[in-house]
Write a structure and sequence with these properties.
Blueprint (H helix, E strand, L loop, with lengths): L4 H11 L5 H7 L5 E5 L3 H7 L1 E2 L3 E2 L5 H5 L15 E6 L3 H12 L4 E7 H6 L4 E2 L2
Parallel strand pairs: 1-3, 1-4, 4-5
Antiparallel strand pairs: 2-6
Length: about 130
């Protein structure tokens, strides 16, 4: 039976714990934590990104996270806590599920960039 976007989101949300922006801000200060913005480049250009976040668009997350990929980004590491965010939390949940499927054990979903900003998280221009 085919799955819907809602089915995929429900599975992703069940697999990847949602955390508060306050928790994400505190965790992001730790050296073994990777904060990842999965929004598109146009969104980043318009709003900036969380200070210190790595930008990897949702469409490339698998390639950046896989050490066997020629597009691998060494910032990714399976021993790290990975916190993802997008505009509203859907893409970050889906990206988080992919990382969990790839063997990343500690993956969390901040949700939306606005949550970060409204909770006092620092922003940097891109």
């Amino acid at each position: 039976m085919p799955v819907t976007v809602q089915d995929m989101l429900a599975a992703a949300q069940a697999a990847v714990p949602k955390i508060s922006a306050a928790e994400a801000i505190a965790l992001a200060k730790q050296p073994d934590v990777l904060l990842v913005d999965v929004r598109d480049g146009t969104e980043l250009a318009a709003t900036g990104k969380a200070k210190g976040a790595l930008h990897t668009s949702r469409g490339l997350i698998e390639f950046r996270a896989d050490p066997a990929s020629p597009m691998h980004d060494p910032a990714f590491g399976k021993a790290k806590t990975v916190i993802l965010y997008c505009a509203s939390g859907g893409r970050s949940a889906l990206a988080g599920k992919v990382l969990k499927d790839m063997g990343y054990a500690d993956v969390r979903n901040l949700g939306g960039f606005r949550d970060w900003v409204e909770s006092g998280g620092e922003v940097e221009k891109v």
